[in-house]
Amino acid sequence: MPNLVVVGTQWGDEGKGKIVDLLTEQARMVVRFQGGNNAGHTLVVGGEKFIFHLIPSGILHPGKVCCIGNGVVLDPEVLLGEMERLVARGVAVGPENLRISERTQVIMPYHRRLDQARERARGDGKIGTTGRGIGPCYEDKIGRRGIRMADLLDEAGFRAKLAEILPEKNFLLEKFLGDQPFTLEEILEPYLEMGRRLRPLVTNVSVLLEEAVRRGENILFEGAQGTHLDIDHGTYPFVTSSNPVAGSACVGAGIGPQHLHRVLGIVKAYTTRVGGGPFPTECRDAIGDHLVECGVEFGSTTGRRRRCGWLDMVVVREAVRLNGLTGLAITKLDVLTTLDPVRLCVAYEVDGRRRETMPATLEELSRCTPIFEDLPGWREDIRGVRRFEDLPAATRSYLRRVEELAGVPLQIVSVGPARDETIMLQNPFA
Ligand code: IMP
Question: Which residues are catalytic?
């Protein structure tokens, strides 16, 4: 059976949560493979709103196993909080539906403090991180001084690692960033206690996936953030510290590339970004306000107002290439209703020349101006539409043009936040 990776094609917040939730019906396992609680999925199910930062949205489906892979950075306090909130709302959470890799890196209190203190120190040049300790945790992973889930289950080993790491962290916090240090004791016991509570969920996720593959069960890999926040391929340094591209699912979950069969790219019908960094199609006018208001573009993690602009097909085409997309899902199409014309950025102009790909430097990207194609808008309410043929002619033309520019089949169109406000053109698993 085919396995599917779902990724964001822009700067995150494309509405992946709803699409993953829909496709979970066809999967046995849903796996997160990168990022941490910098992500946030808002789901509307049965009129009830759920926000998740760490737990895959598949948790709302009975009979599915959600996994947090080794590529994730996990804040145990946040995870336990999400579990408690789910249980309070009647959703059972335990080893039968949630598993964590023993190799998953743990976000420690000093990671959060370092993240926030560094951002303060950067002043106007700040990245605009979510302040959740994501970057410092990945730094420690690569620096070979990270704490992994398995360490929280081994008291003596954890104490020894912490004793080795803390002096350096405290030196940085106190002497370089002018912040408060930590004592070993204030971290040790609370983290051991969280380790005890999470122990039943901790396992070798790679082995679980191998077993699922052998049984012929479908696996859904749920990417967080988006392609242009990728540490290698994004708008560096205004990026996150992980690889949200599809290939990262292999490393971050512990599975070989031959088991990733399909890649669905989620494209919001316009572009948004939170935090700093260049954004060629940004609209700092009434159109931007329309997109923020109608699209409710406020971060589900930090509550920040998102920067909004027209759909940028240079950005999407990069995502097609970098992820090897096999299909597209367009989300929040209803937000464009009443805008006329609807604009599509088809290329950039820089130094009098046309450019079809994203430049590597921020300096050049900030000089790129969009070349727009204007298409007729539509005024009809499309939220009730369930078949492509029933969409207004202008809406269909817009979608077909996006598909043509991307060079990848359009498989899903989302016309509203609820699960059923969806038009299925093709099954992304097929
Ligand atoms: P960090 O991931 O907290 O280190 O933040 C780095 C950059 O990625 C900042 O610009 C954040 O706003 C952005 N970012 C991180 N996670 C998300 C997300 O889930 N959606 C949108 N932007 C994100």
Answer: 13, 41
